[in-house]
Amino acid sequence: MVLHPGLIVRELTKTYHGKSLPALSGVNLEIHSGEVFGLIGPNGAGKTTFLCCLLGLLKPDFGEILIDGMYVDDLRVKAQFGYVPERLQFEPWINGFDLVSFHHALAGGSRQACKTSVELRLNQVGLEEAAWFKLVKTYSRGMLQRIALAQALIGNPKYLFLDEPTSGMDPSGVMQVRKIIQELKDKGTTIILNSHQLDQVERICDKVAFLRGGKVQTIEVPTVGSEASHVIRIRLMGEISRELLVKVAELVNARLVGFGLNEAKFEVAHDKASAELLSALSQNGVHFIEAIPEQNRLERLFFASETSSK
């Protein structure tokens, strides 16, 4: 699939009233149609402000945003948006089914298709049927995240904006969101994701912009796809031969990438493979004190920047 610039940002600048420093300062970037584009950075970096400018919820002081060649305040553009905000504030008196039905109507959906469309989205996000007709004020944070995602998807958006979409979700919910993002990407949806879960960002995104102080510091291209590899550092007990470690690693499709005094490093495909490796080591007489996952590429970038700013 050939990617073309769908979203172009030029010299975007935004300063809040009463603040001496800008929330965004001369941001330039392109997001191609069909990409999953990640935003990371410390609190106050300008990520949510940037998202709100892209959505047309905030007016920048300077610069321009073009989406499919049109300005962001064009209603033809906004009709193609889906949005999950960081702060979820739904009317407490409405139930989940009616909330998504309301957004179905806002998106121009027909009455005849409403019930089928709403049920499809609620099932897609994994909200249990028993909760569909409960008031949203009784929902847990994870349930609110699911209903927020359902309302964002109901209009089949071409551009989906996700601001911390897995906040408060259990691991199954996080995996469900990741699956949905992959399915939408396969269909050509452009997704802009703001998240502090750096390992998830690295697994999901095609490109990742690191923001700090209202500026894009760098744009990273994750080298691995949806199942990013991990490196585990293991502190060993006693003398263990390198040959034994290589043999055990091969049993679970892992790879020994480092070996030294009382320490070994293994590359594994995913979290489940980490547990399989540790179990195989133990079963083959390799005793260890601890196993520590090493920081992934985005984590190293994030914390290196944090250290340099102090």
What does this 3D model show about the protein?
The chain folds into 2 domains: 5-220, P-loop containing nucleotide triphosphate hydrolases (Rossmann fold), CATH 3.40.50.300; 230-299, YebC, transcriptional regulation domain (Alpha-Beta Plaits), CATH 3.30.70. Helix content is 35%, strand content 27%. It has helices spanning 47-55, 75-78, 96-106, 111-124, 141-153, 171-186, 198-204, 242-251, 271-283, 297-308, and strands at residues 5-14, 24-32, 36-40, 62-67, 70-71, 81-84, 159-163, 190-194, 207-212, 215-220, 230-236, 255-260, 263-268, 288-293. The strands form 3 sheets. A 6-stranded mixed β-sheet has the order 6-7-8-3-9-10, sandwiched between helices. A 4-stranded antiparallel β-sheet has the order 2-1-4-5, covered by helices on one side. A 4-stranded antiparallel β-sheet has the order 12-13-11-14, with helices on one face. It starts with a strand and ends with a helix.
What keywords describe this structure?
single chain, 310 residues, alpha/beta, Rossmann fold, Alpha-Beta Plaits, 2 domains, 6-stranded mixed β-sheet, 4-stranded antiparallel β-sheet
Please outline the helices and strands.
Layout (H helix, E strand, L loop, with lengths): L4 E10 L9 E9 L3 E5 L6 H9 L6 E6 L2 E2 L3 H4 L2 E4 L11 H11 L4 H14 L16 H13 L5 E5 L7 H16 L3 E5 L3 H7 L2 E6 L2 E6 L9 E7 L5 H10 L3 E6 L2 E6 L2 H13 L4 E6 L3 H12 L2
Parallel strand pairs: 3-8, 3-9, 6-7, 7-8
Antiparallel strand pairs: 1-2, 1-4, 4-5, 9-10, 11-13, 11-14, 12-13
Helix pairs in contact: 3-4, 3-5, 4-5
